[in-house]
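Field: sequence (string)
Field: structure_tokens (string)

Example rows 1 and 2, in order.
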Amino acid sequence: MGTADGGEVAPEAPQPTHISVHIHQESALAKLLLAGCSLLRLPDPTTGTASQALGSRRLLVASWVVQLVLGVLSGILGGFLYTFQHTKLCYSGAAIWTGAVAVLAGAAGFLYEKRGGICWALLRTLLALAAFCTATAAIMIGASNFNQYRYYINENDCKVYSAGWPTVAPTTPSPQEVTRLILCISQVNMLKALFISLEAMLMGVWVLLLLASLAPLCLYCWRRFPPKKKRHEKKLLGVSGI
């Protein structure tokens, strides 16, 4: 009986140890589950407000960066357009003054963010309005003169004139003349494609500048007039607080 009792007692000794280890693992798993659930909880109102303010600030900074980059790009594309025959779009200088105002608006935004003050705030607001107006005017000018290149670059430039006077082309041109005309016409078509692609890029840049200049106004309206759902939530929070 002693050996039997000893044999019965021996397997009972590790059993509490096994149970305690199992309980310890369950508690660790429960802690992990609780930690995961805490991450999925909705943030507090103060945390949500802070995150919204940070998101709006990042959007403003992004709009200023876009204005700086696209303003410089508008000036560069406008300089390329001046290498071709002059059109109304080139004479207007829309690419230059639109890019300059956009660069100034972006720089004023960064200066206001760094220094603050009423003067910088007013300057930033004025330049933002000026950027919106110049982008709108540039889009209108570019749209009205988009196909004007056809009247300045055509296949007549490939004809040969002697002594400054136009002459009638021969009925049977030489093979060299035919080759020259084909090469000239192909180059003129390439020039037309390059010119219209530059104009299309400028139009895209101006549209993006218009959208970037509207970003501060959209943020102001979003803060001033929040959605109905958020206003209802604020009212419920106020009632529950009372």
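Row 2 begins here:
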Amino acid sequence: MVQKLIFASILGAVIGYITNWLAIKMLFRPHHEKRIGGIRVPFTPGLIPKEQGRIAKSVGEAIGSHLLTNETMVEALKTNGVNEKFKKWVEVKILEIQRSSISLGEQIKKIVGTSYEKLVCFAKSKIANIIISTIKKDNFKNQIENVIINGVKKQLSKSPQVLLEKDNYKKLREKINVEMKNYKDSQEFKDLLFTLTSGKINELENSDKTLEEIIPISIISTIKVYVYNKNYDISMAIKDMLKDDKINQKIRDAIKGMMGSNLNPMIAMFLNADVIYEKISSVIEHELDKEDTQKNIALFINDLFDKILEGKASNIFSSMSKEAKDKSIKQLCELITEKIIDNKLFDEIIKLLELKIGNKESIEEMLTDLDLDYEQTLRDFIRIRINYLSENKKIEEKVYFYVDGSLNKILNMNLDQITAGKETKICKIASNASEVMFDKFVTNKAGDFIEAFNIKKIVEDKINSFEVSFAEEIILEIASKELSAITWLGALLGFIMGFLSTLIASI
């Protein structure tokens, strides 16, 4: 009886062990379907090879939906020091780039490879087009216009005295002065003055105006006052004239003529013209020394001047021959150019203008006093020039030319030259920028970025790509103890069942 119990128990244990061992093996084997005579052998392939796709999908679903979720991955990026590692990586790369002796273009070429030329051409074209389109915008034109206007206003707010003290103005002043003096002495100016004077005289000759109507009253009054104030000088001048030999002789001849024509010859024989002249001359000189006589002479001259002014200008000029008139005009022009418009006059005119300009608080005030709407005029001029330049094809060509040259120059610069003396600052800026960018990326875009990975699909595809033997090896490596325990549990259960079944049968 005991032997039966032992045998049955051992047999049950062997059967239980083999059954569980075989069941575990059938999970993985055979790897492929087996057929005999075209009939599929049951339980082939094994459970795991047969259901590999479903298992892969389930595992991928579990990992993607419950383990490596978007929220989990984003949280991991925030809390696992990834930001600091990224920041350190950026700093290291920036330092490497700064210390390299290659050009900026070569560094970009390393990054983009064969697309470098296309990228550079695209960048040049894009930059040039942006500049050109910006130039053509009304907003840009208004800004340029305002910048120029404000700059001009700033200069116009200065005192005109600042301009008068500049060396450039002094040179200009000297040049203008020289040019005016040269023009005054030129034949061109003399001809112009002669023509203008002749024209005015011709107008007077054909008019009914008197000299009094033509000559300004202020000039007439000035002349009369001058004559009256100079009465003594005029009287003394008359005395000097009487002492002149030629005038003496003419007066003597006149006295003789008068005596011969108006007196009886008998009486005239007893009279001496020289004696009479001496008497008359003595009386005249005596009278000319009197103040009343001097004033009366001045009044007489002014009365005579009034009589002349009452005459018509046409009578004076029409009585003159063309030659005499031209000669008089020429002499008048010479008098004007030599005695009136002299070099000193130019200097005084310029000084007077400078004084008036210098007394203004600003150049703008000076322009305002001249009733010039300089701002609107300037705006119109600037806008016309800006519109012309913005639509000019040559400007577009210049923009492309300078963008091409400038970008080539930048690309050919060595990185160590570009960053020289600014290494620490650039590194700090790049580091801070990378930190901010990483934070923004993780906060705003990391979820979408991770979702685009489709972790479920990645896990599923990866499991499906495994060989069944590799999956078996992984599972056995992970659960070898558990599977061994299950096998021995089968043996234990078989042992118990064999023992109990034999024991019950013997009763």
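free_text_note (row 2): The beta strands are 35-36, 39-40.
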